[in-house]
Amino acid sequence: MIESKSSLVAGQSNPGLVFAADLGGTHLRAATVDANGKIHFRLKQNTPQAEKADEIVRALIQALRASEEQAAGGTGSISALSVVVPGTVNVEEGVIVKAPNVPCLDGFRLAAALEGELRRPAILENDANAAAVGEMWQGAGRGLSSIVCVTLGTGVGGGIILDGKLWRGVDGSAGEIGHMGVDPFGGVACTCGSRGCLEVYASATAIVRMTREARPRYPDSALHTSEQLTSEQIYNAGLEGDELALEVFRRMGVYLGIGLANLINIINPRMIVIGGGVVNGWSLFEKHMLQQVAERAFPLPARSVKILKAECGDDAGLLGAAWLGFALQGRSL
Ligand SMILES: [Zn+2]
């Protein structure tokens, strides 16, 4: 279903623009994107801390109107809307099943609400799934049809594309790579209710927690002086050779490598794309990650897979959303 950029636009006289919005718990980011993946206009604002879903709908409509005024300059009209949310989405029905960071949307039929107001087709998607599509369309996975995308941010997200099709699963909940168990014995408690998930070892939150936990064993570490630790700070300390930071990224790399080896053995993908802020620490965890992959993945799929950093950065979700918006209009299917 997912085809290359050239086939996406082939034969289309004027596919126009898709209004793509990335509705995070903190920020609402939006952009108009054309069929070549070019972003024409973007905006960013705080997500309304709304008690009612209507306020979110208003914010999205206002953002679209602002984009439309810009598009009036000649870049084409907005033909569809695509919204990505951090949570479980029923794509076919356009319903947000559960979005822990935007709880007023739980159970809300957002696609129908937007379509009713704007008279244009609308689609919803989970943010990590959209990021995987974005990386395949415009990022590290360009031209490939079977890739897995792992996003290492505040949490750990995942998206799986098999034979050109986003694998959403029976309930739209597939791809929760962050909640793959990697430590069954005494594993750290996860926000999902389980223990020992990849997320509690490989997210930015986990990097900070593991640093605090290990700090007493490293009295000489420069990371003792700061109370407000961030994963960025820990990464910078690691670059300067701080033993505590190096140990934390070693552990993180080991757990991530175990998770990737599982994905490689089960899915046999052409590429695993790793995105999110924690990727800044790549040089500190890469060796440990790859060592686990070498030890645990079967040789044949391990030889076939490339493990690369994501290329689209914060725009992966918006670009994936845009692609899905074009697909919704039958422009690539
Ligand atoms: Zn979990």
Overview of this structure, please?
The protein is α/β, with parallel strands linked by helices and 333 residues long. Helix content is 38%, strand content 20%. The chain contains 11 helices and 12 strands. The chain has helices spanning 5-9, 53-71, 110-118, 127-138, 199-202, 204-214, 231-239, 243-267, 282-296, 299-304, 316-328; strands at residues 17-23, 27-34, 39-46, 78-85, 88-90, 95-98, 122-126, 147-152, 156-162, 165-166, 271-275, 306-309. It has a 5-stranded mixed beta sheet, sandwiched between helices. Strands 10-9-8-11-12 form a 5-stranded mixed beta sheet. Strands 5-6 form a two-stranded antiparallel sheet. A hairpin with a 3-residue loop joins strand 1 (17-23) and strand 2 (27-34). Helix 6 (204-214) crosses helix 8 and helix 8 packs across helix 9 (282-296). It starts with a helix and ends in a 5-residue tail after the last helix. The structure holds zinc ion.
